């Protein structure tokens, strides 16, 4: 029991230090091997609290007399978060603690409940972009840092059983996966892997691309050419008829024939005809079926 007057004396001796509460709600946010210690702010009217963070790894606990190591970047900071990524350098259990300073007053250490081991970091699937460059299947992966590798699975659509795998250890901007068959769809998914903790993320969403020169391209080409053919097939008989009309009146002596007509028959027959043989001349102008004209014209 401490008598009330003695309690006041005790508080007076301890100074104002004892009145500053230790930071609370100390927790770890750890994603993709980036670790942050956070805590609730210590609020003192009109004054800014400054925080300092220390850690203790397995080594300090077992071989260095349970000493604590200050984190320089998080010494007397005003933020309520500390980037501890560089200090968590091994896959072992760490203890962490933080205290507040307001003016000349200093709080007790507030300690993280339990331990933090980076093996518990949450891993997210990589951001990726699948590209069809002609017949090349390429993938672009997010650069997540040197600790990260990627396991990339790819397959021809409809042949999931023949999935192929590629481990990407260094992220260059674009990785070549495969050469694709024309007009086929290929799909890709990837997961991150961190060797230091021997853990993988879940797989990214599957992305599919189509190699060029496929059915759709063939279809487009076919449609365009048949439309072109229709136009030619409709105009050629008209042109041929028109040409024959002109020939009826200006057949002789040296008619300038359209190329299409020159091919099938020697023009000499036409040139030979006399003006009195107009009827005959007319008969000599052979009106070719449009397909034949087109075939000759294409040749
Ligand atoms: C700790 O967090 C809880 C819930 O997140 C909140 O209600 C509480 O006020 C926090 N404590 C401090 C000291 O900020
Ligand atoms: C270990 O810590 C204790 C108390 O904190 C101290 O007395 C002792 O000298 C330390 N030993 C070493 C080897 O630092
Ligand atoms: C935390 O520190 C790591 C390692 O130094 C660094 O890569 C990362 O960008 C930092 N994150 C933030 C948000 O400052
Ligand atoms: C990684 O974990 C797997 C099981 O998830 C295990 O089979 C393998 O041996 C481990 N590798 C290393 C290097 O610890």
TrEMBL record:
A GO cellular component annotation in the UniProt record: plasma membrane
Signal sequence coordinates: 1-18
Top-level taxon of the source organism: Eukaryota
InterPro entries in UniProt: FN3_dom, FN3_sf, Ig-like_fold, Interferon/interleukin_rcp_dom, Type-II_Cytokine-TF_Rcpt
Single GO MF descriptor: interleukin-20 binding
Location of the Fibronectin type-III domain: 13-109
UniProt keyword Signal present: yes
Domain Interferon/interleukin receptor: 140-211
Keyword field contains Transmembrane helix: yes
Membrane-spanning intervals of the chain: 217-239
Keywords noted in UniProt: Membrane, Signal, Transmembrane, Transmembrane helix
One Pfam family in the UniProt entry: Tissue_fac
Protein name per Swiss-Prot or TrEMBL: I20RB protein
Organism this protein belongs to: Nycticryphes semicollaris
